[in-house]
Specification:
Length: 318
């Protein structure tokens, strides 16, 4: 399979010290220190503060000019970048082809990934924890969650995959960017005076300018896959069954250790917007239909029933 972003190849992920693949055990050990958890608490507090800003009309009134100016200025700057130009060149590059979007749910098995080793695929976040168990590697790796990028900067700096798509936020952590790393411009819609809801979500037909946020990295992958021309998009390992408490605003508040990933992913804790995620998926389904494409869920089990379901064996003709 040709390299989507550049010519570099080799081992998928190496630790900063000297070439050995970093294990999930080492990663968990690094997260056990007090500073790590203090930083995580601070991030949750910041998320709640931002949520208040979004929902308070008076605060939005004063923030609106600044936020919209900030968004527009950032969009103009990104439009002139080499990253934007490269993404634009990918429009319909894979017209009529099939790809897989891989989640990090507990149903995901390395044996299933072995079956799609020769397929185009998008994977995200901590998927590299499975690399020691499978020869499969994603053709496109994506990370847009800012806290994940900040806390996993060392991992991202040493990941070596055909195409690594990361949010612009990562620029300060990847100052000497490799040719296979592409920065993407992801943010929510323009700051509005309208009542804030978790369904204030759009779909970007031009991700080379901006990718629309949708409370999950999977939504970003869907926008990119459709832009690149894939007509059959298969979801695998997207269980969508987070252990949760749901507030009156339909926010999922996750407590304690999360058992809903194939590894104990500390980044999955915090606040997730359940209603927003499902709205984003519905929007992606409709956009796929308009483009003559389809999104199929081949996840083994799980609670995501928005998309047509097929087994992985049916998809692969096994």
């Amino acid at each position: 399979m040709p390299s989507p972003c550049g010519k570099r190849s080799g081992s998928a992920l190496r630790n900063a010290k000297g070439g050995r693949l970093a294990s999930s055990r080492e990663t968990r050990r690094a997260r056990s220190n007090t500073n790590y958890w203090m930083q995580r608490c601070a991030v949750v507090d910041l998320a709640l503060t931002k949520d208040y800003v979004k929902r308070n009309v008076a605060v939005r009134f004063f923030f609106k000019p600044y936020m919209n100016l900030r968004y527009k200025r950032g969009d103009r700057q990104y439009r002139k970048s080499a990253d934007s130009s490269w993404l634009k060149s990918q429009h319909n590059r894979y017209r009529g082809k099939r790809c897989f979007i891989i989640g990090n749910g507990p149903s995901l098995k390395s044996s299933d990934l072995d079956l799609i080793a020769d397929e185009f695929s998008f994977a995200s976040n901590g998927i590299y924890h499975l690399f020691e168990d499978t020869s499969w590697r994603p053709s496109h790796y994506i990370a847009v969650d800012r806290y994940f990028i900040e806390s996993e900067a060392n991992m991202l700096a040493n990941i070596n995959l055909p195409c690594v798509l990361v949010d612009l936020f990562a620029e300060k952590y990847l100052p000497k960017k490799s040719e296979h790393v592409v920065f993407v411009n992801l943010h929510m819609d323009s700051f509005s005076l309208k009542k804030y809801t978790t369904t204030n979500i759009s779909f970007s037909d031009r991700p080379h300018l901006r990718i629309a946020g949708g409370y999950t990295v999977t939504y970003a992958a869907m926008q990119l896959a459709l832009f690149m021309g894939f007509t059959d998009i298969i979801l695998l390992g997207i269980d969508h069954n987070y252990a949760r408490e749901v507030t009156s605003q339909n926010r999922i508040v996750q407590r304690g250790n999360n058992e809903d990933h194939f590894f104990k992913d500390d980044h999955a804790k915090g606040c997730l917007y359940y209603e927003g995620v499902e709205y984003a998926y519905e929007l992606a389904k409709e956009k796929a239909r308009e483009k003559g494409a389809r999104i199929v869920n081949a996840t083994r089990g799980g609670d995501l029933d928005i998309f047509e379901r097929l087994s992985l064996e049916e998809v692969l003709g096994l």
